[in-house]
Specification:
Blueprint lengths: L16 E4 L4 E3 L3 H12 L5 E4 L6 H5 L31 H14 L5 E2 L3 E7 L4 E6 L2 E5 L2 E3 L6 E2 L13 E4 L14 E4 L3 H12 L6 E3 L1 E2 L2 E2 H9 L4 H16 L14 H8 L4 E3 L2 H7 L8 E4 L3 E4 L4 E3 L2 E4 L3 E2 L13 H10 L27 E3 L6 H24 L2
Helix pairs in contact: 1-10, 5-6
């Protein structure tokens, strides 16, 4: 009933069935996608979600370790139109957050089409619609919402000799729990939030970064930052955060953790690098249970050689090297340099909406949610679930206004 066949010129691939959908097409059924769907439904706009995996929120359900907790207080991680249960703790666990997402999907009756990996999406200026290939279908729609997020694909580092290592080598997306490595000597590559938490998990079971306490004076560091930013410039807030951090944690450089030249909030805005919110790892570093080592020169068959020339052997190496956007792998030229034609038609002398290098919108927050010709981006703000919720609300409002004028005038 919600799929209506209607031809608009030949399909991009001749053996595909064309499907016309009157509402927006959402690519991705993670928190950004389902939040946008809920907001659209609340405004009476039909939508269709395409998800390449067999479940919604696959990053949370399939690629997160067991001890994971939200690093920000729950009030900053709620999706639109539905609060967390009051009995949830300030920092919900992975399983609690997944149960929240399950309840969210059930409440708004969100039913994605699973197993629908988008191969290519193009804007067709001749008919002013988007053409989206997935499965054996070519969807045709007026609005396309990219909700595949900042963490669509894992990042594998290019480190010399990585293929020579004979022990277990895995990315944190495949890491489940410390019990699996009990008694092993493990190297964790990467010192972001995931790397620090995995290191703590491993330690509990027998680079340069900003590391901040999760709370200052009993207040969430993130919440305190947001409150201070209403009154003070970013550099002033950074200075206050670093002063409080030094009082609580001491000099982190004594333990091999060097701080970048600019403050954590400024660095987050400029480069998208999230400061580490410490949940106990730094205490293990100070006690010597976790050792901070220099950069890696190369891997060896039994371990690694570090920048200072030292060698160490390891049973396992876990790559906490993060994720990246995959938008440019499918939202691009296909035939006859069509993507180039689309960019010229849509933006004139401007560049394409998503950057070719990092797959993020070129326009900065808070204007990173809308492109041209019905193209939207949900969840690319580098501000986590809070940013995704803000995007969802703005996108739904914008499309609802267009929908009302077009179909209910």
């Amino acid at each position: 009933p919600f799929l209506q066949l209607k031809l608009h010129g030949p399909p991009m691939t001749s053996n595909l069935k064309q499907v016309w959908f009157p509402g927006p097409l959402i690519v991705g059924a993670g928190p950004s996608g389902i939040a946008t769907a809920a907001c659209l439904k609340e405004r009476g706009v039909p939508y269709l979600i395409l998800e390449k995996e067999t479940c919604f929120a696959p990053s949370w359900k399939l690629r997160t370790y067991e001890r994971l907790k939200l690093h920000l207080p729950k009030q900053y991680c709620e999706l639109p139109l539905m609060a967390f249960p009051p009995e949830f703790p300030t920092y919900p666990t992975k399983q609690q957050f997944i149960s929240y997402l399950d309840a969210y999907v059930e409440r708004f009756a969100i039913k994605p089409l699973f197993g629908m990996a988008v191969r290519v999406a193009e804007y067709d200026p001749s008919v002013r619609f988007w053409r989206v290939e997935a499965g054996d279908l070519e969807f045709i729609c007026r609005w396309l919402i990219v909700a595949t997020g900042e963490n669509a694909e894992v990042v594998w580092p290019e480190i010399r000799g990585i293929s020579r290592f004979r022990g277990q080598l895995l990315h944190t997306s495949c890491y489940m729990k410390g019990d699996d490595h009990r008694g092993e000597k493990v190297l964790v590559v990467g010192s972001g939030n995931s790397g620090m938490e995995v290191a703590l998990d491993l330690c509990d079971n027998d680079a340069k970064l900003h590391i901040l306490p999760r709370e200052l004076l009993g207040i969430s560091t993130f919440g305190l930052s947001m409150a201070l930013l209403k009154w003070l410039p970013v550099k002033a807030v950074d200075a206050l955060l670093l002063f409080g951090t030094r009082l609580l944690l001491g000099d982190t450089e004594k333990y091999g953790i060097k701080r970048p030249a600019i403050g954590p909030l400024e660095l987050k805005s400029a480069a998208g690098k999230t400061p580490v919110l410490d949940i106990g790892t730094f205490a293990k570093i100070k006690s010597g249970q976790i050792k901070v080592v220099p950069d890696i020169n190369q891997f060896t068959s039994k371990g690694a050689e570090f920048a200072d020339g030292e060698h160490e052997e390891f049973d396992s190496i876990i790559l906490a090297t993060g994720y990246k956007s995959n938008v440019t792998s499918w939202l691009k030229r296909k035939k006859k340099d069509f993507y180039v034609s689309y960019c010229r038609f849509a933006y004139g002398k401007e560049e394409e909406f998503f950057g070719e290098k990092d797959g993020f919108p070129r326009t900065s927050f808070p204007n990173s949610w809308r492109g041209k010709n019905g193209l939207y981006a949900a969840g690319f703000t580098r501000r986590g679930l809070l940013g995704a919720s803000m995007d969802a609300c703005k996108i739904a409002e914008d499309i609802a206004n267009l929908w009302s004028r077009r179909y209910q005038a």
